[in-house]
Design goal:
By secondary structure, the protein is α/β, with parallel strands linked by helices. Helices cover 43% and strands 16% of the residues. It folds into 2 domains: 20-131, Response regulator (Rossmann fold, 3-Layer(aba) Sandwich), CATH 3.40.50.2300; 147-185, Orthogonal Bundle (Arc Repressor Mutant, subunit A). GO terms for molecular function: phosphorelay response regulator activity; transcription cis-regulatory region binding.
């Protein structure tokens, strides 16, 4: 009996010739701006503003590429990435988010995303991530995370590992529960 691994095999190269792309984001101005920029670079873009709309679009025609926002109005963008990998194994997806943390980045990659970018990402960054070879290392960031951001990322990671249980996370971090709630309610530091 064969056992399946948690990691799906990554395609060695980007799908050749097929420039179809699904773009899923609930921020309409950003969605329209990125869609236009990607179309100008030769992609045939289909847009969706939520998880259900995105899954319906990929069931109609599974694209070669996808750019999916992590947090959408009707759910988690990782559901779209997982559905895409089920519909088309050679598809390449990038997850975008304004609420980046290490735990969700790892989950995104496990579910089939090839990269995880913080918003606001421009079309060139998205295309570079989609076309990068699996063994190719990305360039180091121009502006690495601050110490405050690293602390926030660590808290978010523990929070995710505790299944978003505030009391358990606070206990494990030796932090007062209300202090943790205030930290979680704020946006990520730069």
């Amino acid at each position: 009996m064969q056992t399946e691994t948690a990691f799906a095999p990554r395609p060695a190269m980007a799908p050749t010739g097929d420039m179809s792309m699904l773009l899923v984001d609930d921020d309409r101005p950003f969605l329209q701006r990125l869609s236009r920029a990607l179309e100008q670079r030769g992609f045939a873009v289909t847009t969706a503003e939520g998880v259900s709309e995105g899954i319906a679009a990929l069931k109609a025609s599974a694209p070669a590429y996808a750019v999916v926002d992590m947090r959408l109005g009707d759910g988690n963008g990782l559901d779209v990435v997982q559905a895409l990998r089920s519909a088309r194994e050679d598809a390449r997806a990038v997850v975008l988010t304004g609420y980046g943390n290490i735990a969700t980045a790892v989950t995104a990659v496990k579910l089939g995303a090839i990269d995880y970018l913080a918003k606001p990402a421009d079309a060139d960054e998205v295309i570079a991530a989609l076309m990068r070879e699996p063994d190719e290392r990305p360039e180091p960031p121009e502006n690495p995370m601050s110490a405050d951001r690293v602390r926030w990322e660590h808290i978010q990671r523990i929070y995710e590992l505790c299944d978003r249980n505030v009391s358990e996370t606070a206990r494990r971090l030796s932090m007062h529960r209300r202090t943790l709630q205030r930290i979680l309610a704020k946006r990520a530091p730069r």
